[in-house]
Amino acid sequence: MELAEECWESIFSLLEHHRYFEPLSLVCKRFLSITNLLRRTLTITDPTLESLPNLLLRFPNLTTVVFRDFHGNLDSVLSMISQSGLPLKSLHVSNHKCFPLLGLKHLASKMRNLVELNCSKTGSLKDSDLIEIGNCFPSLEVVDISYPDYGCGFSPNGSLDFKSFSGLVTDYGILGLSSSLKNLRKIDLSVWKHSTLPTARVSPRKASWRF
Fold it and tell me: What are the strands, taking DSSP E only, across 7-165?
């Protein structure tokens, strides 16, 4: 007797990583269809970009998108993802020179249920960006804005030299962000050892703050 599709889904769901889905998808069209539906995470790199529209259609249940070693236009790709109808819950846009505010706004216009956002090691991050994050994604529970990259060197006394930079993340932006996120559980504010950034005050809500 042939197993029902729900049984195959339960079996395949036991696999620890989606990389094991690829050989299964080659067995038959049925397995291809099942593994496509079970895929939850997509990592976007430069080589992925050309096939991205097809991948977004192929995997309709993606909940996590990770940008890794990506040097393309982040704003335009986020805009594309916003049109996909994915049930997106987690987004990782770390290690980029420019904060993709425009792309995130496009994403928020369609997907406001994001619960995790990782913007660590991102350049040009300002207070106004943090406030926009809070306005765009009010359901966020976990936020990582650690190690912002301002492209600054070190002054002779060992501290970071921010003289050439026009904006920084301060208490104002951090508290503005946290006040908009009623479900916030964790926010990572780790910075460099020699950072001169102000230390944020702890929110009265029960969120885990990491400095």
Answer: 41-44, 64-67, 90-92, 116-118, 142-144
- What pLDDT, in 10s, does the model give residues 73-92? 999 999 999 999 999 999 99
DSSP 88-111: --EEE--S-SS--HHHHHHHHHH-
Could you tell me the strand order of the sheet in which 186-188 lies?
A: 41-44, 64-67, 90-92, 116-118, 142-144, 186-188, 208-210
CATH-assigned architecture of domain 1-39: Up-down Bundle (1.20)
Q: Does domain 42-150+158-210 have CATH number 3.40.50.300?
A: no
CB-based contacts of 76: which residues, under 8 Å, 6+ apart?
A: 103
pTM: 0.78
Per-residue pLDDT of 153-163, as tens digits, reads 445 555 555 55
